[in-house]
């Protein structure tokens, strides 16, 4: 299976051929994948070099001319390093772009903490008007990329990762998908966390919802699920733990509920290791998830029975 990032350049190159509004801005990362496309569209494929603030500023300038810019580099260099430009050049000026990241929270452990971005979605949450897609499979990444580019002049973040579920699902850029139904709580699995969540909750009487678009958050689907499964909600996100707990709280504000936010911890892991070792260290492997979700459900039952 190809990776999400391997799907990125062919899809966007095709969009450049099809739509004269589409432009691509790169900061050296990924430029080799666009060499042929750059020859076909030299005025709409721009490599600014290792200048991430300029990456966003140039993209905003292209948007001001009426183009639909797609900006790409590692997440830490796309959201964190040029955050002022994301906030002002795009948000303050009221223009849109599609930000497509790579490396996710810890896709390249050998790159060290400079190349890790577990706080990217939480950081974008401080800004208004962003749509955030977190695909869990290359097929979903392609669908959501096309959806993002076609989304008028909106500001959209597409978070690509090496981690992926075994199979893709039919996503539409809006809805939570019900994958499993139960009566003892709801687990919301975000993007590449779905396979681990399904394994972790096997045999547990819990509803599993799948999210590949986390902003805006599909509050209506969550409320429908809690009507039969109850209002104990577990969020399993591939980035900073608790990033979406406020969104769940808002969705269930008028109902008594409990929320457990699982994801990447705040403590910096200072050993390179492997992606799998980072997943385990943050308690996001299937075994750890089952233990943590099980303890959460058991605690509710203990309180309700007075044991």
TrEMBL record:
Coiled coil: none annotated. Gene3D superfamilies: 3.40.50.920, 3.40.50.970. SMART domains: Transket_pyr. Residues 2-167 form the Transketolase-like pyrimidine-binding domain. Pfam families: Transket_pyr. It comes from the Bacteria. InterPro entries: PDH/Transketolase (IPR051157), THDP-binding (IPR029061), Transketo_C/PFOR_II (IPR009014), Transketolase-like_Pyr-bd (IPR005475). GO terms for molecular function: magnesium ion binding. PANTHER family: HYPOTHETICAL TRANSKETOLASE FAMILY PROTEIN, PYRUVATE DEHYDROGENASE E1 COMPONENT. This is Transketolase. The lineage of its organism: Bacteria, Bacillati, Actinomycetota, Actinomycetes, Kitasatosporales.
């Amino acid at each position: 299976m190809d990776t999400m990032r391997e799907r990125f350049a062919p899809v966007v190159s095709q969009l450049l051929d099809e739509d004269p509004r589409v432009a691509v801005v790169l900061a050296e990362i990924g430029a080799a994948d666009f060499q042929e496309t750059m020859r076909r569209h030299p005025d709409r494929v721009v490599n600014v070099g290792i200048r991430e603030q300029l990456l966003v500023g140039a993209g905003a300038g292209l948007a001001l001319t009426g183009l639909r810019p797609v900006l790409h580099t590692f997440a830490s260099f796309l959201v964190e390093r040029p955050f002022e430009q994301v906030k002002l050049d795009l948000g303050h000026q009221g223009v849109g772009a599609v930000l497509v990241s790579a490396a996710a929270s810890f896709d390249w452990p050998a790159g060290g903490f400079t190349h890790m971005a577990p706080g990217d979605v939480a950081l974008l949450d401080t800004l208004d008007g962003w749509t955030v897609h977190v695909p869990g499979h290359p097929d979903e990444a392609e669908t959501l990329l096309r959806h993002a580019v076609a989304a008028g002049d909106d500001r959209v973040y597409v978070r690509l990762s090496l981690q992926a579920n075994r199979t893709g699902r039919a996503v539409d850029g809006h809805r939570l998908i019900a994958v499993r139904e139960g009566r003892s709580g709801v687990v919301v699995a975000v993007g590449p966390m779905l396979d681990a969540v399904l394994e972790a909750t096997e045999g547990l009487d819990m509803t599993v919802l799948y999210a590949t678009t986390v902003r805006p958050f599909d509050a209506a689907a969550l409320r429908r699920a809690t009507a039969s499964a109850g209002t104990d909600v577990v969020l399993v996100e591939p980035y900073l733990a608790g990033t979406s707990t406020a969104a769940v709280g808002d969705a269930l504000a008028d109902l008594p509920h409990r929320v457990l936010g699982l994801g990447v911890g705040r403590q910096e892991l200072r050993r390179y290791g492997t992606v799998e070792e980072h997943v385990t260290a943050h308690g996001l492997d299937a075994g750890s998830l089952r233990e943590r979700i099980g303890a959460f459900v058991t605690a509710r039952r203990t309180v309700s029975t007075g044991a």
